[in-house]
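Database export, one record per block. Field names are fixed; values are copied verbatim from the stored entry.
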Amino acid sequence: MFDFYRLQLPLKYLNILITVLTFVLFFWFTPVVAQALTKAPVILDGQQLFQISDSGQYSAQERTNLINSQLKNVISASESIQVKIEKRNQLPTILLNDRYLLTVTQQDTLPGSTLDEQANIWAQQIKEALQEAHLERTKTYLQRTTFIAAAILLITVGFSWLLGWIKHQFIRVASLRLTTRVPVQ
């Protein structure tokens, strides 16, 4: 007769070995993948707009640092927003208030899209994000947001008090019913 118990023990160790090898191979190849796909996010007010790649002598992080600082400068200066696209060296270049912001390279494009399409998408995203950032810094917006936050706080406090009152009433009624004796007949 065949003993299944003796077979279970080696299979258990084989499963553990396969799992460990899978994790080792995964973590071994991960840095190679990360190095091949170097991208860095362009961020405005904590929102990621898009990611850009390395370009020539500039790393993706250096490019995004320059872009992010220019976006912050435009917001803090309360300047008007003009986003344009020009061709420079046969590559679409995005200008912000007639100042260089970034050049869209082939490494920046998504598969199946052209440089011009990517530049138009990013220019629109930049323009919308800057308009939203300007709006969020207006006095009217801040007042309205403060009012909404205060209203939510008051509603939450009122709801919490109401739940506490209902709990108190339920406990009071339950304790009265439990302590009241019903005459036995």
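Remark 1: The longest strand covers residues 47-53.
Remark 2: Residues 57 and 82 are 28 Å apart (CA to CA).
End of record.
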